[in-house]
Every structure is written in C-alpha cells, then in structure tokens.
Amino acid sequence: MAWEFSTDPEFQKHLDWMEQFVCEEVWPLETLELTWPELRHVILPLQREVKGRGLWATHLSRELGGQGYGQVKLGLMHENLGTSPLGPLVFGNQAPDSGNSEILAVSGTPGQKLRWLEPLLAGEVLSAFAMTEVDTPGSDPTQLATTAVLDNDEWVINGHKGFISNASLAGFVIVVAVTDPEAERHRRVSQFIVPSGTPGMRVLRDLGSMEEPSPRPGYYASHAEMVFEDVRVPKEAMLGERGAGFAVAQVRLGPGRIHHCMRWLGQARRAFDMLCERSVHRQVQGGVLADKQTVRNWIADSAAEMHAARLMTLHAAWIADTQGFKAARKEIAYIKYYGARVLHDVIDRAVQAHGSLGFSTDLPLEAMYRRARAARFYDGPDEVHRDSVARQILRGYAAPAGAVPSEHIPTRREEARERFADLLESVTAQS
C-alpha cells in the first residue's frame, strides 16, 4: 500500500499564487468598513482575476464550470482562502452558496439548474439555506417543525426559521420542511426552492451575534430570523424526491465540513504567525516572551495540534475522494470537533500573548476569536459528532465471554500454560 504526502507541482503553483493573492489583495479589505454594495464593487476585479485563472467555483465538476479537483485539492485551496473571511467570496465558493450549488447540481432538474444554479455559479445572486429553527433543536433535525402541505399543484409552507445566513440578501432560499410527518424519522422532510419576494416569506430581523454584535441588515454573511406564512410554491419547486430532504442535505454536508476545517486551519495559521511574531519581540522581565517556557509550550502545542488537524482533515478528504463520503463519515466527524477545538485554542493563546492589544480591535485576533466560537456548532454541534464517532467505534466491540476481560492476565496465563504445556514439560525435563 502506497502512502503519498506530496502535492502535484502544477497544482502547488495555484496554491502558492492563492496564498500570496489572498494575503496581498484580500486581507486589506478586512480593515475597511464597507457596505455590501461597496464590498461587491471592490471585489469584482479580484473575482475577474480568479476567473481568468480558472480558479472560480472550483467545488463543482468540470461539466458545471468547476475543475473537478476532488476534496484533497479543494481542502488545500480552502486552507489558503480561509485565512480571510472574505477569501471564499472572492473565489466563488463561499457558504452557503457552495453547498446550495452542490445540491442543485446533484438534485436539481434541468429547469432548476438553468434558473438558479447558473446565476449562483456566476456570482450574480446569493442564496440561503433555511433549516435551523427557532423552537426546535438544531442538533436533531429530525424534530423540524416547519411544514409543507400539498394543495392541488402547490406546496404551502409554514414555519419559523432562525440564524439563516444571507437571508436578507438571498435571491432564493432553499427551505427544509416536513412533508411526510408519519414517515420514518429520516424520510419526513423535503427541500424546496423559494424565490425571494415570494408572498409570506419574510425576514423578521437580522441578528446580532458573538461574531458580529451589531445586526447588519443586507450585509454578506449576516444571519436572520425568518417566517414562512402560507408560502405557496409550485410542485416543481421541490429539490429531489419527496421525503429525501436529509439525503439531499448530505450532498452539501460532507464537503462543507472538510472545507470548514481547512479554512479553520488557515485562520489558526494566521493567529499562530501573530503569536510567534509577538513572542520574538515583546520584552518582559529582562527578555522576550519567546524566552519563557510557557510561551514556548504554547507555540509547540499549537504547531503540533495544527499539524495533526491538517493531516486528519486531508486524510478524511482522501477517503472521500477514493471511497466516497459515506466511507469517510467517521473521519469527517473527527475533524469537525477536533478542528474546532484547535482553532479556538490557537487563537486563544495568541490573544493571551498579546494581552490588551490582542483583546482590542487593533488586531484581527478578537474578531477571529468570536468567529471561532461558532465553529463548535456549525454543521452540527461537537457533542453530536463525538457521540457519532464513539458509536461507530463501539460497533466493532462485543462484551467478553463470561464478563471476563479479554486481557485478564490470570485467565490468559492459564490458557498459555495449556497451549505451551508440552514445550514447558520438555524444558523442565531437560533442566
């Protein structure tokens, strides 16, 4: 069995260019307080340059305008793009649009692809994915309460959704709703495309959050509370088959989690660089921080944890590429909770090393820290993923016969004596 850790030299050139491009052209935009129209105007030339290099919306297959790179290469790309929250937007693979485009690509009809996928991939519209609800636990989507009832040739949607990203900007929303309440728990829901402006679909309010304490209505990556009151859509608005809502969602969740984790590594690496820079020049107690064992421990631990998370994530991507996402389910769960913890811990150490400067808005660390907290529940809370990993592992074990531990030394000693009795007897006779 061959193991390979190298990157194709031609693709490495793309990665090198992306790293420099994001650092030099995208990072500066973070310092400006721009409205969404201003930001969209400013990034247009950057997006044109990305498109000119064939690196736009690379998460899809070649037939749909992507590069068909596979998850390992996409993961390596997202490590560079994730150093800035604006990086994915400049490269046309920002959430939730990238996941929605994957759903449309796999489950959309030709008409749906023409009307919604093509402008989404072209960057002409943004989209939203409305699954999370205000009154039901996001950790168990089988409890969704939003309903869609068939009335002649239309579906009538009613429900209350919360924390819906890009809701106030979206050209359309993919809504997850219960269509078959009596069905098996994973066959109860379906997905629907609801165009913005559809009567009955309203954004109640844009939310403040730990990431962005002041609500920013009409701004990219804002989160909103939505209501659906007798929202009517035609039968053709359904994505995929009736009752297949969870199966459709899996199309976006596997790749999305890998990309999230690699973007988190990009953020962690940026915080790590600030930690190291601070350590070699900040004078304290007759030397620099780098002379202190505690700080050196922070640096060593951070480096090891990032390296471990990176290898785990790329390994999950490799399994997805070679065996499919179903085979990578456990590995993707690993990286989701481990990667979130590494992101938080590295940023936390960098903040601590900078003291009041790191806590202030004079450095990006405080914003990175606030964003990092959400990593522990995006795409499923850490506790659910850890539980999933444990359950999968435990399936490979059974209770020992007679409740005696399989490594019980007295029992094993007796078995060994019986097994080697003849040899032991011959040795004794010779001595």
Distance between the termini: 47 Å
Strand count, sense and closure of the main sheet? 4 strands, mixed
Order of helices and strands: HHHHHHEEEEEEEEHEEHHHHHHH
Helical segment count: 14
Q: What would you call the structural class?
A: alpha+beta
What's the arrangement of strands in the largest beta sheet?
A: 1-4-5-8
Strand content: 5-15%
Average pLDDT works out at 93
**Percentage of helical residues?**
40-55%
Tally of DSSP β-strands: 10
Low-confidence spans? none
Shape: globular
Q: Give the C-alpha Rg.
A: 26 Å
Description:
This protein has 431 residues and is of the alpha+beta class. The chain is 50% helix and 14% strand. It has 14 helices and 10 strands. The protein has helices at residues 9-26, 36-52, 71-81, 87-90, 97-107, 110-121, 245-281, 293-323, 329-354, 356-359, 365-374, 382-394, 409-419, 421-430, and strands spanning 127-130, 147-151, 154-165, 172-178, 189-195, 201-207, 223-234, 238-239, 283-284, 287-288. The strands form 3 sheets. A 4-stranded mixed β-sheet has the order 1-4-5-8, with helices on one face. Strands 2-3-7-6 form a 4-stranded antiparallel β-sheet, with no helix packed on it. It has a two-stranded antiparallel ribbon with strand order 9-10. Strand 2 and strand 3 (154-165) form a beta hairpin. Helix 1 runs parallel beside helix 3 (71-81), helix 3 packs across helix 7 (245-281) and helix 3 (71-81) packs antiparallel against helix 8 (293-323). It is globular and about 95 Å long. The mean pLDDT is 93.
